[in-house]
Description:
The chain has 211 residues and is of the alpha+beta class. It is built from two helices and nine strands, in the order αβββββββββα.
Amino acid sequence: HRKYSWVNVMSRCHAGCAEVDSLTEAVAGEGFLLGCISCKRREEVSARATVDWHFKPQQEEDFRHIFHYDHPAAAVLHEDFSDRLEWQGTLNGDVQIGAVYIQNVTFNDTGTYRCTFHRTLFLPLQLENVVVEKEVELTVVAVANRELTAVISEIVMYVLIVVLQLWLIVVMVHCYRKIWDEHEAREARRALKAQGLLLGSKENCDGVQAE
Length: 211
């Protein structure tokens, strides 16, 4: 499966930073990208940010610190995610994309993930510290569920195919009946013409005999 990168997506976006919600359903045994984007209010202001990820397993009360990024260093902080988390966010100190990639997802990864930006804005007169938190409710399934829109689109496609086939049959039947009616009319005209010729010949014969 191809790894999805927020960095690649954002680098192709000429309109600037755009906050997009993370996907929320992962498939066991596959990789999954936990998305987290926090855009600066003013793009022209220089800044530096660190990102922390915390995880609260399903049916537990407390979050556990699992990942920390302070450019250029990335650190996995919990043994359950050892060798399974990879930074997929901004590759400089002014972090706006804080995505991490989970390798080999398990059912134990189901739960709530909290992404926290600690950002320092270098304003002309002073520094401003900003904290932004976002949460992702992740569900792990055995098989990927199909998107409802994809299912609806497929149903509509099949319905259209059936309707078009029925319409084609109706058109073919109509054309066949029209051709057959024209054939019958042509044969009837020929029969009338032949009958008229036959009657004319008979009248000529009767006239000759009378003379």
